Structure formats: C-alpha cells, structure tokens
C-alpha cells in the first residue's frame, strides 16, 4: 500500500502543480488513497521531495533531480578551483588551485561539453583535448559563463 501511495504521489506532483500537503492529500483521496496528513508528511520526507518555484513563481513539490544536484556540485568545484584557461590549438589548458585538478577534471568531464574528447589532470593543471580549436573557444566561453553565473 505504501509503495503504491508513494508512486501515486510522484505521479501527482509530476502531473499537477501541488503547493501544499493538504492539496496532495485531497488529490490522493480523489484517486482512492485514504490517508492522513501525518502519513503524507512522512512520504514527502521519505521521497525527499523539495519545493521549487514553478513558472508562475508558486512553490510546488517536485523530486530532487540527482543529476542536476550533482551537476551543481561539480559547477561549484569549478567555480572555486579554476584560476585560468588557455587554448593551445586543440588543447585547453586549465590551471587550478593546488590539489584541485583531478576533482576539476572530473567536473569538466561531467559537463559533457560537446567536442571535449577527454581530460588528463595533474596536481594543479588539466589538459583537455578538444576536437578542434573552435570548440575550445566555445568551451572556455561556456565554462566562464557558468562560473560567472554561480558567483553572482
């Protein structure tokens, strides 16, 4: 019963902009799940639901996007670690804070930058192999934009 109810909760929050536990409880009752607000509260905790603003600015329940959260963590690593980036033909050389190159290389790999073939990291330097120098310029601009956005 619990598994079915939690699956129904996920379907409901994906289908409707649900703002409150009461609204969620009402919708569950409408589809045949007789439950209590306390149970809904526990389900929300167990499902790790969060509230995010929708297009209208209302705070609605949604699932944590694990991939999105991981991506944000990697972006924060890059924002804190990168000192400089320089392009040499199709090689993007990234200088980082000492000891942060490997974590930063993993972060760069996770961004799936189109045209980035791979990375090799030392202690404070990353070599990123790009398909060509034009892609390297685009990658620098993309990384710079992401870093500036995080620091705002």
UniProtKB/TrEMBL annotation:
Pathway, per record: Amino-acid biosynthesis; L-arginine biosynthesis [regulation]
Major subcellular location class: cytoplasm
Record-annotated Arginine repressor DNA-binding domain positions: 2-66
GO CC entries: cytoplasm
Subcellular compartments: Cytoplasm
Matches recorded under Pfam families: Arg_repressor (PF01316), Arg_repressor_C (PF02863)
Domain of life according to the entry: Bacteria
InterPro entries named among the record's database cross-references: Arg_repress, Arg_repress_C, Arg_repress_C_sf, Arg_repress_DNA-bd, WH-like_DNA-bd_sf, WH_DNA-bd_sf
GO molecular function, one term: DNA-binding transcription factor activity
Keywords: Amino-acid biosynthesis, Arginine biosynthesis, Cytoplasm, DNA-binding, Repressor, Transcription, Transcription regulation
Family: Belongs to the ArgR family.
Annotated function: Regulates arginine biosynthesis genes.
Record-linked HAMAP family: Arg_repressor
Protein's UniProt name: Arginine repressor
Lineage: Bacteria, Bacillati, Bacillota, Clostridia, Lachnospirales
């Amino acid at each position: 019963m619990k598994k079915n109810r939690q699956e129904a909760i996920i379907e409901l929050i994906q289908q409707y902009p649900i703002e409150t536990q009461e609204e969620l409880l009402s919708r569950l009752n409408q589809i045949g799940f007789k439950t209590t607000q306390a149970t809904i509260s526990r389900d929300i905790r167990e499902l790790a639901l969060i509230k995010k603003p929708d297009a209208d600015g209302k705070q609605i329940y949604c699932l944590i996007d694990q991939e999105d959260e991981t991506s944000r963590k990697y972006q924060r690593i890059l924002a804190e670690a990168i000192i400089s980036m320089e392009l040499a033909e199709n090689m993007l050389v990234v200088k980082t804070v000492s000891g942060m190159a490997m974590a930063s290389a993993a972060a760069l790999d996770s961004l799936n930058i189109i045209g980035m073939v791979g990375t090799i990291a030392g202690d404070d330097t990353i070599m990123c192999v790009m398909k060509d120098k034009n892609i390297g310029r685009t990658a620098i601009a993309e990384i710079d934009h992401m870093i500036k956005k995080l620091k705002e």
